[in-house]
Specification:
The chain has 121 residues and is mainly beta. It has a single domain, classed as Immunoglobulin-like, CATH 2.60.40. The protein is 0% helix and 49% strand. The chain has no helices and 12 strands. The strands form 3 sheets. A 5-stranded mixed sheet has the order 2-1-4-8-7, with no helix packed on it. Strands 5, 6, 10 and 11 form a 4-stranded antiparallel sheet that branches. A 3-stranded mixed sheet has the order 3-12-9, with no helix packed on it. The two termini are 15 Å apart. 23% of the residues are buried.
Length: 121
């Protein structure tokens, strides 16, 4: 089954707050295999980070990242498994990175709460 997700960049937020929004923010999936596709919302002025565009990579298979979309496969095979947070990273028109989760050490997405999630149903 295919699932479309949209990504928006908001650089007006306070320092440390995630500047990338993913819609839907909390995705609930019944058991099965899904082809997920993240694309910019409307005419957003960013590109997806080709190296760190989608993390953690161990939760997805077949990841393909281009400047204008991310495609990955997700298998939901454990009913009622806890939700997990994932990160989408984009680059603004100046090449500066922005994340959908709060930043941790070295400017990379950190652990902890916040950010888009996927939950098995």
């Amino acid at each position: 089954m295919n699932k479309e997700l949209h990504v928006a960049l908001d650089t007006t937020r306070r320092t440390g707050e995630p500047e990338v929004d993913v819609m839907p923010m909390h995705l609930v999936l019944p058991q099965g295999t899904y082809n997920l596709r993240w694309t910019p919302f409307a005419n957003e002025p960013f590109t997806f980070d080709l190296q760190y565009g989608l993390t953690p990579t161990n939760r997805f298979t077949g990841i393909v990242i281009t400047a204008h979309e991310i495609k990955a496969q997700y298998t939901s095979d454990h009913q009622n498994a806890p939700e997990f947070v994932y990160t989408i990273r984009v680059l603004d028109s100046s090449g500066n990175p922005h994340n959908s989760t709060p930043l941790g050490a070295k400017g990379l997405p950190g652990a902890g709460g916040g950010g888009p999630t996927i939950k098995n149903n």
